[in-house]
Design a protein that fits this description.
Distance between the termini: 38 Å
CATH architecture of the largest domain: 3-Layer(aba) Sandwich
CATH topology of the largest domain: Molybdenum Cofactor Biosythetic Enzyme, Chain A
Strand order of the largest sheet: 1-19-21-22-18-14-17
Low-confidence stretches: none
Number of domains: 4
Number of helices: 7
Bound molecules: adenosine monophosphate, magnesium ion
Helix content: 10-25%
CATH class of the largest domain: Alpha Beta
Largest sheet: 7 strands, mixed
CATH superfamily of the largest domain: MoaB/Mog-like domain
Radius of gyration: 30 Å
Number of strands: 29
Length: 404
């Protein structure tokens, strides 16, 4: 008897997970700007100043009034100099120019800059080329950002360029979502720590490194919990410990219906199950619930299932908890060979994405099937998303691709 949905369509499971994540959003915190990289913004940013803040020169050269140009070359009187960082109060008289450096405020009246390399200086005279366009080499106040412009929005990811834009507006701190704390569990009696000897029937634990790496690449600092044996009591103790200490528990293995798969039972008994089993391949036994204060995402143990479920549901959960509204980028690419999918589930196929000669992205599906084949994943740089239902793609068909 279950009182939670099972066997959900991918989109329905995703909607349920997003809804659950949104109900328990992490609080926001103010962080000094240098610590904001990779965070999700929890405020809008409206410009309180224009960018550039004042008219200034884009080049080292000479600033002058364009109306003073006549003929092929014009001789102007050098009236002074204007350097970056100095207030630009000087005004030019007719026939005058001023030496200027990149970023220096334009002198009053001046509207054009001739590049230093194109001018000749002769004592107190400067000969500037006549072909200089009006307004050349001048960066206008507000041409990039005007006062009041909404330059950054709640829910967007703080990339280096966005943090830098906030810096250019003089902001020393931003309100961002707290990052989730994450506990990672691998489970299975057969698992051995790399570096230790293997007994017959055992395999090395590869999922821990996979998950830790994926989470770190997403900017988190996961904690690897000791590996769990297939023992319900030990699974329970560890999960309940983690449940009151972390925002998110991610487990690998032990979520199917086998005799040794204890996670669904432990979660149902001591926590809450939101759904179990999603119509996807690989990754069908995916389990999602909560325990104490933590969300629990139970990934199936096969390494490629871990990859496919983390990149879809894991990321959606982490993003949702932080209130990220900006969707993750996926790509459209052309298949280089036909691809057949006879079954009904949504499938994630390992593939290699490359830039094709025709200017389109190309993706080549890896021939390996089998969610245990980690090497095929290591040789791939993308997952091809094949939608529900039987699909028969010809070479050249356009498919959605998640870059790894
Ligand atoms: P499970 O989901 O526990 O039934 O595991 C499915 C398959 O994945 C089994 O062949 C396991 O041996 C394998 N597996 C589970 N956990 C790991 C792990 N941490 N590293 C490598 N393989 C694993
Ligand atoms: Mg297992």
């Amino acid at each position: 008897m279950t009182d939670f949905p099972t066997g959900l369509l991918f989109d329905d499971a995703m909607a349920l997970l997003r809804e659950t994540a949104a109900q328990r959003r992490l609080e926001a915190e103010y962080l000094a700007l240098p610590r904001c990289h990779g965070r999700v913004l929890a405020q809008d940013v409206d410009a309180s100043m224009p960018l550039p803040p004042f008219d200034n020169s884009a080049m080292d050269g000479f600033a002058f009034r364009h109306v003073d140009l006549a003929g092929d070359e014009t001789t102007l009187r050098l009236a002074g100099e204007q350097f970056a960082g100095i207030a630009g109060n000087a005004a030019l008289q007719p026939g005058e120019c001023m030496r200027i450096t990149t970023g220096a405020p334009m002198p009053a009246n001046a509207d054009t800059v001739a590049i230093k390399e194109n001018c000749r200086v002769d004592g107190t005279n400067v000969i500037v080329p006549g072909a200089t366009q009006a307004g050349a080499n001048v960066r206008r106040a507000g041409e990039d950002v005007r006062i009041g412009d909404r330059v950054l929005e709640t829910g967007s990811l703080l990339t280096p360029t966005r943090v830098s834009l906030a810096a250019s507006l003089g902001l020393a701190s931003l309100r961002v979502a707290r990052k989730p704390t994450v506990a990672v569990f691998t489970t299975g009696d057969e698992l051995v720590e790399p570096g230790m000897p293997l007994a017959p029937g055992q395999i090395y634990d590869s999922n821990r490194d996979l998950l830790m790496g994926l989470l770190r690449a997403d900017g988190l600092e996961p904690t690897a919990w000791p590996r769990l044996p297939d023992d319900p009591r030990q699974v329970e103790i560890a999960l309940r410990d983690a449940g009151c200490a972390f925002d998110l528990i991610i487990t690998a293995g032990g979520v199917s219906a086998g005799e040794k798969d204890h996670l669904p039972g432990v979660l149902a008994q001591f926590g809450r199950t939101h759904f179990w089993k999603v119509k996807m391949k690989p990754g069908m036994p995916l389990l999602f619930g909560s325990l104490d204060q933590a969300h629990v995402l139970g990934l199936p143990g096969n390494p490629v299932s871990v990859l496919a479920t983390y990149l879809t549901f894991g990321r959606a959960l982490i993003d949702g908890m932080q209130g990220r509204l900006e969707p993750r980028q996926t790509w459209q690419a052309q298949l280089v060979a036909p691809l057949d999918k006879p079954h009904a589930r949504r499938e994630f196929v390992r593939g290699h994405l490359s830039s094709g000669r025709n200017g389109a992205l190309h993706v080549e599906a890896n021939a390996a099937t089998g969610s245990h084949r980690l090497r095929a994943a290591a040789d791939s740089n993308a997952l091809i998303v094949v939608p529900e239902g039987a699909q028969r793609y010809a070479a050249g068909a356009v498919v959605e691709v998640i870059p790894l």
